[in-house]
Amino acid sequence: MAKHLKITVEGKVYDVIVEDVTEDAGSSMYPAPGMVSPASRPAAPVAPVAAPAAAPAPAAAGASDKTAPMGGVVIEITVKEGDSVKAGDQVAVIEAMKMKQVIVSDHDGTVSKIHVKAGDAVDAGQPLMTIS
Questions:
Q1: Please, which residues bridge with residue 3 across strands?
Q2: Cβ–Cβ < 8 Å for 110, 85
Q3: Per the confidence metrics, is the pTM higher than 0.70?
Q4: Are the C-beta atoms of 45 and 114 separated by less than 8 Å?
Q5: Which residues partner with 92 through β-bridges?
Q6: Cβ contact 82:110 at 8 Å
Q7: Which H helix or E strand runs over 105?
Q8: How far apart are CA 25 and CA 3, in angstroms?
Q9: Could you report the per-residue pLDDT of 21-35, keeping only the tens digit for each?
Q10: Fold (topology level) of 65-131
């Protein structure tokens, strides 16, 4: 009997179909559950493997931060620290799934800090730069 399962491994979700081969009573290759001989069991329990350390979460966005509208990769930062920008000016470009999205300033101000560089992967809501 096949079962359709979703399995999450290190944050990635996989759809898998698992077939239970122990139901085949005529097979000597796959003994029925509970019919495993003591000689075939492991001698000692296997120690669990420690999970890898999680990457630090991005800093929370402040009121004057321009944030990523979606997860993706920063393709271009079109301003530098100290530049004056007006509302609607392009400040960066992000790409996700072969689609590029131009990021524009939503208010007039000066770019006081750039938090990412071209090639960085970003999450939705992650601060890209501070425009004060």
A1: 18
A2: yes
A3: no
A4: no
A5: 77, 103
A6: yes
A7: none
A8: 19
A9: 665 555 555 555 655
A10: OB fold (Dihydrolipoamide Acetyltransferase, E2P) (2.40.50)
